[in-house]
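Fold sample X.
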Amino acid sequence: MCTREGVFSGNLSLDMSEGSPWRIRRSGFCGMRSKKFDGYIDLDSYDTIAMKLRGDGRTYISTIYTENWVNSPGQEEDNSWQAFVYVPHGSWRILKVISLVATGNYVFVHDKTPLCFPIQIPLDSYLPTWKGNVIEANMEMNPSRVVGMSLSLNAEGGVPGAKTGPGDFRLDVDWIKAMRSL
């Protein structure tokens, strides 16, 4: 039996309120992020992020933030590395075998197994991004300088057959771990 340790849920909306005090240019995005770690988490001894999730048929975004070494000096933003995770509706998922499906500039971690499997994302499958867009550069993540992690959701995009658009969403998170796949 699985117990839920965390829930990421809400209603994804494309509405933009006229006269809002927020300078919103687009909508349809929601995320949750860890606090910035005190120091770094060193994942250099690991090659994979594993997650035990129960989803709603949407594609979620897993982000790892590393110390800023790509951007201009003096810039405060951390570097972000993203992988897209499709979580079918229903049962807890713990993926043992992954397949990577390239779709445009994105990599989706996806498996068609109908029951329980751990979702594993190799660290080298995370793509460098800037404000949600993939950076077209030959770069490698520095796994010894992880400063935070997040899970998020965008109303647009996803693997073929995934639920998209506005509406309710829910992702149950039992655990997230770093591991060696070898």
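Fold sample Y, listed below.
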Amino acid sequence: MANPKRKTSKGRRDRRRAQTFTLAAPSIVECPNCHDMKLSHRVCKNCGHYDGEAIIAKVDAE
């Protein structure tokens, strides 16, 4: 079996492991109904529409 010739340093080890912990930014798109920015594949918080349908009925606070 193959064995390492030298000890892997802490810096080299940590640089290698850092690749797995990178975070992706959330994909933000424009709502086609109210043109507000929202997360993709989720109901719009501003108007309550998703995929062209009103999912949440928004009531104006009086």
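Sample Y note: The longest helix spans residues 10-17.
Also: The two ends are 75 Å apart (CA to CA).
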